[in-house]
């Protein structure tokens, strides 16, 4: 029996929860699917489904086999796509996930450049602060800060996640008190709230020593970074910003960096921004093309 065909029929039966529904979905007979699953069970020496007159259910062995069988089919499909792309202009869909703040900072420009460079490609970009499972969600890649050591995934560093203290020239004119750790409480603050960030203290490295400073009461706090960035540019106070976000405003003079000798720690967001993708897609042409486009843009913006 065709092994790949048998695996396909097994996975479809597990997904549909019925031999009858799986047969209709594949356009085959119920007996053909039953023979395919029986063939796999004979080869493995164990039952994959518990069968009754009303329903079927995966056995423990069936659940283990299903996970591997899905990956086999995904990788074979990807291999076919890669071979097709070698023979023609790159085309298809690339599904990307990233935090919302990455969009206006650099991802919008990267995506537009990528689509202009590869007119047959399409992008589906989901901007969310939620942690997404690339494998379960069928994403091609993610641009992410935070934890990246995950099984089955490759994490390639893109740029440093360096944190800068910033203010607008208008704010500094309005409140001319020198910005020092001892005068933090005499300034207006815009503070980003996130479950990964300590809501009471900031940690700094200064002169090789790690120091803790109590956070002042914010003039404005929010769980949306871009909302606070707008207030920062409008002169509403001081804010800690990632360099990848603040860089264009600093170049244009719309923001000023303060206390460059004090390096805030990036907390649970980590010290680098990474692009993350499944191991089995490491040689996929569309992935490598997007990552190259992303890296080139960050180089041009001096964000590496």
UniProtKB/TrEMBL annotation:
KW DNA-binding (keyword) present: yes
Domain of life, source organism: Bacteria
The HTH lysR-type domain, residue ranges: 1-59
Pfam families xrefs: HTH_1 (PF00126), LysR_substrate (PF03466)
Gene Ontology MF term list: DNA-binding transcription factor activity; sequence-specific DNA binding
Key words, A-Z: DNA-binding, Transcription, Transcription regulation
InterPro entries: LysR-type_TF_proteobact-type, LysR_HTH_N, LysR_subst-bd, WH-like_DNA-bd_sf, WH_DNA-bd_sf
Transmembrane segments: none
GO biological process, one term: DNA-templated transcription
Family: Belongs to the LysR transcriptional regulatory family.
This protein's name: LysR family transcriptional regulator
Organism of origin: Pseudomonas fluorescens
Organism phylogeny: Bacteria, Pseudomonadati, Pseudomonadota, Gammaproteobacteria, Pseudomonadales
